[in-house]
Amino acid sequence: MTEYHLQRTDREITDPAEILEVVRMQAFMTIAMARAGVPYLATVNYAFDADRRAFYFHCAPTGKKVDVIEANPTVWCQILEDRGYIDGKCDWAYRSVQFPGTARFTSDPDEKRRALHVIIDKLERDPEAKRRLLAEANLDEVRVCRIDAGPFTGKKNLGPDAARRSARKPRARSTRLPRAQR
Ligand SMILES: Cc1cc2nc3c(=O)[nH]c(=O)nc-3n(C[C@H](O)[C@H](O)[C@H](O)COP(=O)(O)OP(=O)(O)OC[C@H]3O[C@@H](n4cnc5c(N)ncnc54)[C@H](O)[C@@H]3O)c2cc1C
């Protein structure tokens, strides 16, 4: 298969630390998937476990994305940091990261709990309180998906005043644990 590389090399994020910064700071990603040649996508809140190079999200036990991923675990993901409209330039500032991945739902209760801890630690204002609730929760009704990530590519367009924009604090993280299904 043809290997593609960014055509706008001037916009490529080459520093792995900067790629990880985008991955760590953002709260949700969009997962592209396909079943029998028919595409689908879902946006989910995630947490990244750097030691395992794995992403986790949780969801309701049934639904289209569950069926599509179970039929074909090969996915493609994008994480987007929205930096807003660049006034007067008809352009938009952003940093984004894409990667191929292999997705699977885990039934191992220990891995489920560990993944939910990673998500809670990332998103909750008071992770300890939520961790205590989780300790007593029945996890049968929650599905946890692990995405093992392939190589990351990063791209950015920070506009002509890039220095000022990159000094700006990235958008605050979400503090709300996502409901399983909306
Ligand atoms: C910022 C954000 C964060 C989210 N975080 C999570 C999360 O962590 N976990 C989670 O499970 N879900 C999350 N969601 C919701 C998620 O994107 C899906 O809507 C949801 O998971 C249901 O997906 P499903 O494939 O099971 O859809 P189903 O309920 O099976 O419905 C399938 C059909 O509904 C339509 N549909 C599904 N989702 C959407 C949508 N979002 N907008 C418009 N049409 C839709 C499509 O036409 C699709 O064919 C999030 C959404 C957003 C925007």
Outline the structure in words:
- With 182 residues, the protein is α+β, with helices and mostly antiparallel strands.
- It has one domain (9-161): Roll (Pnp Oxidase, Chain A).
- 27% of the residues lie in helices and 37% in strands.
- It is built from five helices and nine strands, in the order βαββββαββααββα.
- It has helices at residues 16-25, 64-71, 109-123, 127-136, 162-167; strands at residues 12-13, 28-35, 38-45, 47-49, 54-59, 74-86, 91-106, 143-149, 153-157.
- Strands 1, 2, 3, 4, 5, 6, 7, 8 and 9 form a nine-stranded antiparallel sheet that branches.
- The longest helix has 15 residues, at 109-123.
- The N and C termini lie far apart (37 Å).
- The model is unreliable at 172-182 (pLDDT under 50).
- Bound molecules: flavin-adenine dinucleotide.
- Flavin-adenine dinucleotide binds at residues 28, 42-45, 57, 59, 63-65, 178, 180-182.
Separation, N- and C-terminal Cα atoms: 37 Å
Main beta sheet: 9 strands, antiparallel
CATH architecture: Roll
Under CATH, the topology can be stated as Pnp Oxidase, Chain A
Query: Strand pairing plus helix content: what structural class?
Result: alpha+beta
- Measured on Cα atoms, how large is the radius of gyration? 17 Å
Label the overall shape: globular
In CATH's first tier, which class applies? Mainly Beta
The low-pLDDT segments are: 172-182
Number of strands: 9
Instruction: Write the CATH homologous superfamily.
Output: Electron Transport, Fmn-binding Protein, Chain A
| Cofactors, ions, other ligands | flavin-adenine dinucleotide
Mean pLDDT: 88
Helical proportion? 25-40%
Helix tally?
5
SSE ordering: EHEEEEHEEHHEEH
